Amino acid sequence: MLAKFRAIPLELGFVLIILLAGPIVNPVVMAATYTAFPTEPQMVLYRALFAFIVAAVIGIIYFFTQKTTPLKLGSEYEITHEQQHLHKQTKKLSSTFTHAVDEFFDMGKFLIFGALISAIIQVYVARDDLISFADTPLYANLTMMGLGFIFSLCSEADAFIAASFSNTFSKGSLLAFMVFGPMIDLKNTLLLLSVFRIGFVAKFICLVTLSVLLLTLFYPL
Hints:
Elements: H1 12-21, H2 27-36, H3 42-65, H4 79-87, H5 92-124, H6 127-131, H7 137-151, H8 158-164, H9 171-183, H10 186-195, H11 198-217
Helix pairs in contact: 1-3, 2-3, 2-8, 3-9, 3-11, 5-10, 7-9, 7-11, 8-9, 9-11
């Protein structure tokens, strides 16, 4: 998803909307969610709705408040540099493969490291320890959001993981897991830190966390 920041002459707020909503508000993920919750179609609706609301709110906030570039100084991802570079390309096909290879090596190391950490935690953290947080809505939602961050699952698969917790955790906490995880997980955080200033990343994660938590806490209402 971070590739969308390259050479896009759009305001940051619009790009953040795509970054946050794209992994969830699409037909493939909605179909996967329905397959995981065939008797509860409202989970599909609320997952897409919450993702859209969070993305819109964050996008609007940054559209009106972010006046300077959040990109790291000298970063190879600076939009102006990428635009200049793209304009110099004469062979579009070779340029496509060149950028694909660069993207693979630039981002692959973060994906592998994130997957390693996620696998270690999934192996050594007992499921029974997690269930102890299920009784209180606030703790349940925060726990499931934490799992979404750590597990770093794809947005098509996380619905089935959420369904496996349906007898233990509330529907609101399951939605918190399915909305927060695709937006902010361990791999995405590493990628964000490689491109953006740490202050921007910290503020961005806090805003997304608070938005998802508030929406999903009021889900039963």
